[in-house]
Model the fold of this input.
Amino acid sequence: MTKQRELEMLLLTMFAAVPLYFTQTIGAGPLIAFHLVMTGIVVRVASGKGPELIPALIMRGLAIAYIAFYAVDAAAISRSAIAASTHLVLFIATYQPIESVHRNNYAQRLLTAGLIFIASLATATHITIVLFVIAFAFLMFRQMMYVSHAETVRSIQRDYSAAETAFDDFLRQYPNHPLAGNAIYWMGESLFVRGQYRAAANSFLKGYQTYGKSEKAPESLLKLAMSLQRLGQKDAACSSFNELNTKFPNAPARVKSAAQSERQRGGC
Done:
């Protein structure tokens, strides 16, 4: 997760608890403590450090202890299951950023922020709460779009990784197969779309050199040039574009068009 996205998530969680100051569902003390801890985490993340304001091991111990404390809180301290539950959710909200160092819990953090906001709305009666609802809905929507995008990317990454393995297995078993040139091209393509340009360049180069008569040879040379371009190797990329024109004057129109666009983009 980027620093900006992490900061947005932290600030959204803090914002969700703001109405609690006005609804007085819980006392000001726990709320102030919550915002102080979250502010400390925000400062650490903004300065380029991790969110572990409190060591994860200590937080895990506190989490275990809180199970027993919750019953005590509800029965003797807050004397309210709603207040005790809100305290619990606030504690979880401070624990989750620290836990996120060890596992991806972004979706759970969004759920926690939503629970905090629901607690904030539970006893709200003033019309101004509508402004909080609109602002929170907008910020939550941004985060949900990010989660959806991230999950899509992870799914694509898994699919491409599986495809890469399949192509590699095929090439090892059938290196002289008529479709071997296609297989190594698509293996390089799976690397290219994931931003692994050096590995992609190696794959495209091998495909071009080993299977120079394959129908994918022009595209392999094109993608080799594009991979080198992404790696900042301008001279090598331009040389590959020139070689494409020389070696494959009858390359498909889409290959020629893509090569022309990429040449201009790279300043060749």
About this structure: The chain has a mean pLDDT of 85.
